[in-house]
# Entry
Amino acid sequence: MSIRIHPSAIVEDGVEIGDGTSVWDNVHIRAPSRIGRECIVGGKSIISYGVEIGDRVKINSFAYIPTGVTIETGVMVSAGTIFANDKYPRATTPDLSELRDSGPDEHTLTTVVRKGATLGAGSRIGPGVEIGAFAMIGMGALVTKDVAPYSLVIGAPARHAGFVCCCGEPLAAADVTEDAAVTCEHCDRTYTLRAGRLSPAEVVSP
# Structure
């Protein structure tokens, strides 16, 4: 496999890009950062230094991913997604006499998007949150706190609205009850809800 980088993209020296990854027009990737294998980085997206992106991640156009963000394997970052990394940003020192450096400091918070999650188009991801594996963030949602694995959240601020299978289909709300198994109607994968958190049901060996 080969790496494809559009001629208009800016990829700084020190950026690591895995085999099979495509970087499209007018992207800017700052160094040092790492992009995994078989990823797509859509046009006009900006990835700052220190960002870690796993394999087979799809980043649509106009995404902004700043320092402090880690994105695991198989994540979907839809068009126009914006991350933040500072809860209380200021442009200058308190006396307004000096522009603050844009590099990470004690105010920079880390955000992690776990494997298989989807960030809907135009979503806003606040600083210092963890988005669980295979979670689904609705388009335009404003995420200000952690999102549990397989959870569907919508709105601004984002709120829990149900659960989704790893295939992306919602699980029937009436079937998701504590300590009971629920099976996806589309792919037959089975899950169990315990203490409000959904996880794949344990497979019992014969």
The longest strand covers residues 159-163. The CA atoms of residues 37 and 110 lie 23 Å apart.
